[in-house]
Amino acid sequence: MIPRIRLVLTDIDGVWTDGGLYYIQDVQPAKKFHTYDSFGVLALQMNGIEVGLLSGDDNPVMLSRAERLKIGLIRTGVRNKLAIADELRLERGLMWSEIAYIGDDVMDLNLLKAVGWSGTVPNAPQYVQEEVGFVTPVRGGEGAFRSFAEYLLDAFDLLDDTIAQIRKNS
After folding, report:
1. Rounded to an integer, what distance in angstroms lies between the CA atom of residue 13 and that of residue 62?
2. pTM, to two decimals
């Protein structure tokens, strides 16, 4: 039997965004998020799966995005994502097999190797793509998190029912 996922962790820059930063004089760098990723968060939360954001950046725009999506688990300014994820795992009494992570760069590799379910984007370096179980069909910033969430839900035969429930309530 496939272990159930209870926590999905995600990098932001390069996964939820295209990795670009828009600099405007005297203002924090801006980031562009794709609305498709909102569905991924909602679908996971509807199935009792917690979503957490891990980012090396500490731009307040990420906090605004997380608040809008009702994501309470946010760690910014993270240098060692594996160590933070291990703390979260122990706090929640989880096994690594119950955790999924999607990231896109070298600083994500240790965590991608530790979790039970891993993903990246097609524009990630080849050496990252070779270490994960799933490469999204869309690039970072184009709904990659949603694609990863749908992949996970489909693996547990939850996707069709989740879509039907959302359609019924819209």
Report:
1. 10
2. 0.93
